[in-house]
Amino acid sequence: VQLQASGGGLVQAGGSLRLSCAYSGGTFSSYAMGWFRQAPGKEREFVAAITWSGITPYYADSVKGRFTISRDNAKNTVYLQMNSLRPEDTALYHCAADNNLGNLLRGGDRTNYWGQGTQVTVSS
Question: Of 93, 99, 92, which Cα lies nearest the Cα of 48?
């Protein structure tokens, strides 16, 4: 399994970005997908996850109402639409795949498949 994240960049506070994560190497629809972020000097933080079907999303409280996770199983891609961005959203964002949704929701410590990360920087 390989994951390739893209879409990061520099944006002003209040702006929007859409991250994409392209999946290859297996059956995409077998995996729950998640997004995590890590800011310098901080631990990795769960951001959002979505079930294999794409029906049920999960969000960290810090992003609820601002971020939307979605997936297109025909394109083997998961997305993270980020609106109303804040300087505290600045981090390296990673996508992850796990056939156990619970592993993602519990912080990803048991998750084996990770993308390389895409940097999001929000200026004030």
Answer: 93
